[in-house]
Design goal:
Helices cover 4% and strands 37% of the residues. It has 423 residues and is mainly beta.
Length: 423
């Protein structure tokens, strides 16, 4: 008499096995009553189950809950109710650890739990997995564009050694990183980032040695401030939109043309090796235009406010003569713009040529007095005071340092603010 085998999994209907026959519904053979020579079949069934159906192709007649070991990948999988093979080492939560990801592995966002920070694993050129964590909507297109969906992210970081943030190692290159129209957000770039194009309309902080070939923040008319707080190398034509301001409170290097259509403020060293174009304003913290000259050793970068003249064994020397016609300028501490700035040595001081700087002086001054060199080394005196003593005295060409911006009644040495280069 035939008998039925009931199942716990779906479909739950029984399986009928006739007398003297076998049933091959599954990947093991079910033996009916009275079937002869059944011993070999039973032993083979036990071995198949013991080795978890060890084969390079999936079992042909699986049932939910069945295990399958693939020797070519060394992966053990389980058959799901949905009719799919689930790898037992797949990540089922929002956490990814190094020892659970093989080199070159990729885990789709759909495999991560809803509501958790999504992680994308991308192998670099050496086959070592690196991690991306997104706190909002995002996508990577087949053209290599990483996009953050509008209003989807409050704060995004790209950082090294930080699993909870987007992590881009130096060996990982992204063709285009796009973060547009994010509200109340700040995009922070940290670490060694290599990206061909960065497009953003969000507030942007570049806080480490980012390498960006093209920085484009002209996609929106309401671009927040750009802050570079340490060092960054930004290559390629760089455009800033008119509604946003650009502020650098850290050093930055621009190796190609830069176009500012809004305001720009520099609080630290910024190096431009290409052309700078602006239809807006360039703002500076300090006041003077300067150029670096080589000193003969009588004057250095530490002699701020001292008067230098052309002469000596090098380009400039300390002034020591009355009404010297070889005036070069005044040693500046923090010029707003410095030419030949690559010559940064102690013996290449920045000489203020135009603007407002403190100047070392001797004697009394009134506002607007002309400053000339004196026999007091590196110190200027008022031409008007001397003219009161010598009625026919006139300033010699090339001897005027600038004009006083202060009143001083003391006859001794001191320092006053001077508009240099104003004759």
């Amino acid at each position: 008499m035939a008998y039925s085998i009931n199942r716990f999994s779906s479909p739950a209907s029984g399986i009928t096995v006739a007398d003297g026959a076998v049933n091959n519904t599954f990947d093991i053979t079910i033996i009916g009553k009275g079937f002869t020579n059944y011993g070999e079949i039973i032993q083979e069934n036990l071995v198949h189950m013991l080795e978890n159906f060890n084969r390079t192709t999936a079992p042909s007649s699986p049932t939910p809950g069945q295990l399958w070991f693939n020797p070519s990948t060394a992966v053990l999988s389980v058959r799901t109710d949905a009719g799919a093979w689930k790898n037992l080492d797949d990540i089922v939560t929002g956490t990814v650890t190094n020892d659970s990801v093989a080199a070159g592995a990729a885990i789709a966002i759909s495999k991560l739990a809803s509501g958790t920070s999504a992680q994308i694993i991308v192998a670099d050129s050496g086959g070592v997995p690196t991690y991306r964590t997104m706190t909002g909507g995002g996508s990577i297109s087949n053209t290599g564009v990483f996009g953050l969906s509008a209003n989807g992210v409050t704060t995004v970081e790209i950082a090294t050694a930080a699993v909870q943030t987007i992590n881009m190692d130096a060996s990982v290159a992204v063709n285009t990183f796009r973060a547009e129209n994010l509200t109340a957000s700040t995009l922070i770039l940290v670490g060694n980032i290599s990206t061909s194009t960065l497009i953003t309309s969000s507030a942007l902080n570049i806080t480490s040695s980012a390498v960006i070939n093209v920085l484009d923040v002209s996609v929106s008319a309401t671009i927040p401030d750009l802050n570079v707080v340490t060092s960054a190398s930004i290559h390629g034509a760089t455009v800033f939109a008119s509604a946003g301001s650009v502020r650098f409170n850290g050093s930055a290097i621009f190796t190609s043309n830069v176009h500012f259509t809004g305001s720009a403020q520099f609080d630290a060293s910024v190096v431009f090796t290409g052309t700078v174009v602006t239809t807006g304003t360039l703002e500076a913290t300090y006041a003077d235009l300067a150029e670096r000259y080589e000193s003969d050793g009588t004057i250095s970068v530490n002699d701020v406010g001292m008067v230098a003249v052309f002469g000596g064994e090098k380009e400039i020397t300390l002034s020591t003569e009355f009404m010297d016609e070889r005036v070069a300028g005044v040693i500046s501490a923090n010029p707003a713009y410095c030419m030949n700035n690559s010559l940064r040595t102690e013996m290449h001081p920045a000489v203020a040529l135009q603007g407002k700087v403190p100047v070392k002086i001797q004697g009394q001054f009134q506002k607007g007095d002309l400053l000339i060199t004196s026999s007091f080394s590196g110190r200027a005196v008022s031409f008007q005071n001397l003219r009161g003593e010598k009625e026919n005295l006139t300033p010699r060409p090339g001897s005027i340092i600038g004009k006083s911006l202060e009143v001083r009644e003391d006859n001794g040495p001191g320092s006053i603010l001077v508009a240099v280069g104003r004759f």
